[in-house]
Amino acid sequence: MAQLVRIIYDGYRDLMDNKSDPRVNNWFLMSSPFPTLTICLFYAYFVKVLGPKLMENRKPFDLRRVMIWYNLFQVIFSSWLFHESVVSGWGGHYSFRCQPVDYSDNPLALRMMNGCWWYYISKFIELSDTIFFVLRKKNDHITTLHVIHHGCMPMSVWFGVKFTPGGHSTFFGFLNTFVHIIMYSYYLLAALGPRIQPFLWWKKYLTALQMVQFVFVMIHAFQLFFIDCNYPMAFVWWIGMHAVMFYFLFRDFYVEAYKKKKSNIAINMRKEKNIEDKKRQRQQPQSILNDFTEKTNVNDIIYANQYKMATGYISDSGLRNRVFIDNRGFDE
Prior knowledge:
With 332 residues, this protein is mainly alpha-helical. It has helices at 2-19, 34-54, 64-90, 107-125, 128-135, 144-163, 170-191, 203-222, 233-295, and strands at 307-313, 320-326. It has a domain at 30-246. The chain contains nine helices and two strands, in the order H-H-H-H-H-H-H-H-H-E-E. It is elongated, with a radius of gyration of 36 Å.
């Protein structure tokens, strides 16, 4: 057992010390994966268990102004990250078919590496999205998709910065920061209040854009299975499978949030129509009676006390029948 532990530890040290990019080893949170893993696990525990428990008997916080400034910051930050990815690579220096990692001290390579680290830090900032839900007691918004997406991303990006801070896989960050510019712009407008919300009809298209993003990432990553490229295949699988997982999670969310909701609305409308039809059917006899009363002279109406009743027999069938005789024309 001790020997097995030693083998695992030696393999871990070899991976961290000899296989990683030495340029980032001394950067904040880059020496070991465990601080990042701890933060991710605590995040999941807080938003699903601890946070809702702490807020159970408290009033929800009014964070409208905080969220306006937060979303504005995210729009600006995402715009800067997108600009850095364009300038340092994806604006013309990088190949969309095959882009190895530049481990040199080339200024553009260092700029891309720096942008990758800040993209990693952005994933911690984005955890605030869920924390705001907890503090506002919007627990129904804390979906499986939301927790998995935000909880996995810091750890996933950590490996990218540690081993491949540049090159082919940064295409994910290039697309993702662009989508986040649009996404946080939507959240910013939504936080401005009810006067703006009627104009935010395009929310479902934002979810569709996120799914398109993951399709592009899958295609871009998995093309290296058919191209000879000096890029670690482990990260091709890592990025590609993340895109597959998130695509299906977002697709399920899209179906649940929009298509099923639309179907439920149609079903409810049909139910309401059936209820109205039944009400009309129950009211119809009374309506007919009212119409008859309005159109009939009161002197023509025959009341029960104006009848005389006699009983007779029909000889061929033997049945007893009651006969009502109009008594109005006779004197007592």
